[in-house]
Amino acid sequence: MEIFKEIQPLRVFLKAKKALGASVGLVPTMGALHKGHIALIEACQKENDLTVCSIYVNPAQFNNTQDLINYPRDLEKDAELLKQAGCNVLFCPSDDQMYSRNRNITFNFGPLEAILEGRYRPGHFSGVALVVGKLFNIVAPDKAYFGQKDWQQLVIIRQLREELKFDLDLRSVPTIREKDGLAMSSRNLRLNEAERIRATVFYKALQEAKKLLSSGQKVEKVKAVVKEMTEQQQDVKLEYFEIAESDNLILINTIEGAKSPILCVAGYVGNVRLIDNMFLDLPDPK
Ligand code: AMP
Fold first, then answer.
1. Where does ligand 1 bind, in terms of residues with CB under 6 Å?
2. Rounded to two decimals, what is the model's pTM?
């Protein structure tokens, strides 16, 4: 596996490969890799000659300094995992490579970011769009891979691609879960043993909500059930549970007539913030 810390040598390397006809897939990550990330790498390998994984903990997308400081980092272990997975290129730039001193570009995705994660993490999606836009420009991939676990991110990147005319395909990969249903996340590393057990409550609440909605229960009642289920757990705080149309993220209060609804949840276990989601229409992945 080739490892690049700087943009220019990576560009030269990729240009040469592309000139020989190689197709390039990009998997952007923030590291502390787990099987969810590896699923993206594998999806990328199936469809491209060359798989590029980026690892960059992007300061612009953290609206909470403590979260940025506490974000798990282990580049050596990540590089080993990527090598084992057969990834071709690791791009792990420094802040200096990615940002100029007086960074002042922001994005505003309007209604797409006024809700769900965007509502609770102001500026988060502007930071995501900025770094993903940079990565698209640096790597110029044919295809880029994102996880469905961060569904709102996916919708926003779709919008970014459309508005800025990036010439690439976006691919999404279903959420990979632990055996007990907890969605894999780098942040899970920060849970202690007791918190790790309690953290499954978000998955269980999504499952229960899905069951109730499928049997005709009203959205309002289902929201109350989710609130009760989660807040019964010690040290668990529900931030939101919402149902949206998955394509446009319009929040809905009834599932009748709604197009491809997705249930989205976020909350804290101790001081670790977790998110998860589940489609109403698709068969449960577990
Ligand atoms: P992150 O390193 O958390 O920024 O995630 C990098 C990419 O991996 C994003 O596209 C995430 O949506 C995706 N991802 C994170 N966790 C999972 C998971 N459990 N299953 C599938 N994809 C995931």
1. 29-30, 36-37, 39-40, 146-147, 149-150, 173, 175-176, 183-186
2. 0.96
